[in-house]
TrEMBL record:
It comes from the Bacteria. This is ABC transporter substrate-binding protein. It comes from Bifidobacterium pseudolongum subsp. globosum. Keywords: Signal, Transport. GO terms for cellular component: ATP-binding cassette (ABC) transporter complex, substrate-binding subunit-containing.
Length: 421
C-alpha cells in the first residue's frame, strides 16, 4: 500500500498508535531445543521491542517463542506494540531513538527511514539470505541508493485484479477493453498509487533504470494517448471509479465484476465470490491504436532493525528470523500472507488461491519496482490531483492535452524541488 508523506499524521496521532500487545516473556528453557548445534557458554539477557500489525499478534508470539528455541544464546524479554507496516516510518519519525528495535515496514518508506537514521543495513549473512530467498524484484525493493540491503522481505506489496469468473473468462481478463465490453470494471483512478499503471505501461519511467536516480526524474512517454484513453474510460458506462471505500463491497455484491487491489483483500473476495472468485495480473489496454501492458507499482513488506537498538545483534538476528523461510511458511498458514520466498510455492491452499499466482505473475511480469528515494514524493499529489480531474471530467476530450501538460509540469517542478532538498 502507498504512503503519502505529505499527508502523514502528526506526532500526537503517531504516538497514539503504540497500543501495547500482550508480550511473550523470556523463556527459561532455551537450552532444551533450537537451531544452534551447541548452546553458548553464557546466555545474554536482552530486551527487544517489536512493532507489528494487530493482525499479526498471534503469529508474532509464535515466532518469538521459536526464536528463543533457535537462539539459546539469548534470554529475551519482549515488548510488543501495534504499529502497522504502513505506519512504521511516520511513527519512527517522532523519536527514532525510542522506536522499536525490530519493526515491519512497507518498502516505499525506505528513504524516509534512512533519513531518520531509523533503519540499519543488514549484515553480509542476512544479505545472502535475502538474495537466496527472493527474486531480484523483491531484492531491489529493499536495496538503498548505496547498494546495501535494508530489511528482510516477507511478502510482496503490489496490486492486481480480482474478478467474477461468472462474468469473465481467463482470456477476457487479459484485456481491459474486452472486459469493459462484457461487464463492469472498478478502478481507483484518483489514487496516485494506481493511476501510474497506465502511464508506466506506455513507457513512463521513474528515476532511471533502477528507480534511484533523482536527477533522472520522471519521464513521460505517450502521455497524451494515455490521458485520452482515461478520458474515454471515465465516460464508459461500464467503468466505475472506486473511491477507495466501496470497490471491494461492489465486487462481492455484484455491482461490479472486476476490482483492482492486493493480496490483503484476497480472503474477503474469496468469501464474497465463492466459486466465482478469480484473480489475475494486470491486463493490457489499447490507446491510440497501440496495445500497452498495464504495470502496477510493486514493492515488498519487510522486517528491519533499528540501528539505535541497545542489543543490535539480537535485533538483527530476530529481524532475519521473521523473514526466514519457516516464519513465512507460518505466516501463510496463520494469515494467508503470500510469501516472497521462492521455495514456498506449494504450501497447502496455495494452488487453490488464484491471488497467489496473480501476485507472483504481477511481481515477475507486469510491475515496476516502486522507487524509495525521497524524490518519489513529487509524484503523489500531482497524480492524485490529475486523477481527480479525470474522474470529475474537468479533464475531458476537449482539453486533455493541455491538462496532461500541466500535470507533467507539476510533477517535474516537484521533482526538482525534492531533488534540491
Amino acid at each position: 500500500m502507498m504512503i503519502n508523506w505529505k499527508k502523514a499524521v502528526g506526532i500526537t496521532a503517531a504516538a497514539a498508535m503504540l497500543i501495547p500487545m500482550a508480550a511473550c516473556g523470556g523463556n527459561d528453557n532455551n537450552s532444551n531445543g533450537g537451531a544452534s548445534s551447541s548452546a553458548p557458554a553464557e546466555t545474554q539477557s536482552v530486551n527487544l521491542s517489536v512493532w507489528s500489525p494487530q493482525e499479526d499478534a498471534d503469529w508474532l508470539k509464535d515466532m518469538e517463542a521459536a526464536f528463543e528455541k533457535a537462539h539459546p544464546e539469548y534470554k529475551v524479554t519482549w515488548k510488543n506494540s501495534v504499529v502497522s507496516e504502513g505506519d512504521a516510518a511516520k511513527t519512527v519519525q517522532t523519536d527514532p531513538s525510542a522506536a522499536a528495535d525490530v519493526f515491519m515496514f512497507a518498502n516505499d518508506q525506505l528513504g524516509t527511514l534512512q533519513e531518520a537514521n531509523a533503519i540499519a543495513p543488514v549484515n553480509d549473512t542476512v544479505a545472502a539470505q535475502v538474495k537466496e530467498q527472493n527474486d531480484q524484484t523483491i531484492v531491489d525493493s529493499v536495496t538503498g541508493v548505496d547498494g546495501k540491503i535494508y530489511g528482510v522481505p516477507y511478502t510482496g506489496n503490489t496490486y492486481f485484479m480480482f474478478y467474477n469468473k461468472s462474468k469473465f473468462t481467463e482470456d477476457d481478463v487479459k484485456s481491459l477493453d474486452t472486459m469493459l465490453s462484457k461487464g463492469k470494471v472498478s478502478y481507483q483512478l484518483q489514487n496516485s498509487w494506481y493511476i501510474p499503471a497506465f502511464y508506466l505501461g506506455a513507457g513512463m519511467t521513474m528515476f532511471g533504470e533502477n528507480g534511484n536516480d533523482a536527477k533522472a526524474g520522471i519521464k513521460f512517454e505517450n502521455a497524451d494517448a494515455v490521458s485520452k484513453y482515461l478520458v474515454d474510460l471515465v465516460a464508459n458506462p461500464n467503468f466505475t471509479n472506486d473511491d477507495g471505500t466501496a470497490g471491494l463491497s461492489n465486487l462481492t455484491s455484484g455491482a461490479v465484476d472486476a476490482y483492482f487491489s492486493g493480496s490483503w483483500d484476497a480472503a474477503k473476495v474469496k468469501e464474497g465470490l465463492g466459486d466465482n472468485y478469480g484473480a489475475a495480473a494486470m491486463p493490457t489496454f489499447k490507446a491510440d491504436g497501440k496495445d500497452y501492458q498495464m504495470k502496477s507499482l510493486a514493492g515488498s513488506k519487510a522486517v528491519a532493525f533499528n540501528p539505535n537498538a541497545k542489543s543490535p545483534e539480537a535485533a538483527s538476528a530476530f529481524a532475519a528470523f521473521l523473514g526466514s523461510t519457516e516464519a513465512q511458511k507460518k505466516h501463510w498458514e496463520m494469515r494467508q500472507i503470500i510469501p516472497t520466498d521462492k521455495t514456498l510455492t506449494d504450501l497447502e491452499g496455495m494452488k487453490e488461491d488464484p491471488a497467489v499466482a496473480a501476485q507472483q505473475k504481477t511481481l515477475a511480469e507486469t510491475s515496476v519496482v516502486q522507487p524509495t528515494i525521497a524524490a518519489m514524493n513529487a509524484w503523489w499529489t500531482p497524480a492524485e490531483t490529475f486523477g481527480k480531474s479525470l474522474v470529475s471530467k474537468e479533464t475531458n476530450a476537449d482539453n486533455y492535452k493541455e491538462k496532461t501538460q500541466a500535470f507533467i509540469d507539476s510533477v517535474e517542478k516537484d521533482v526538482a524541488a525534492q531533488s534540491a532538498e
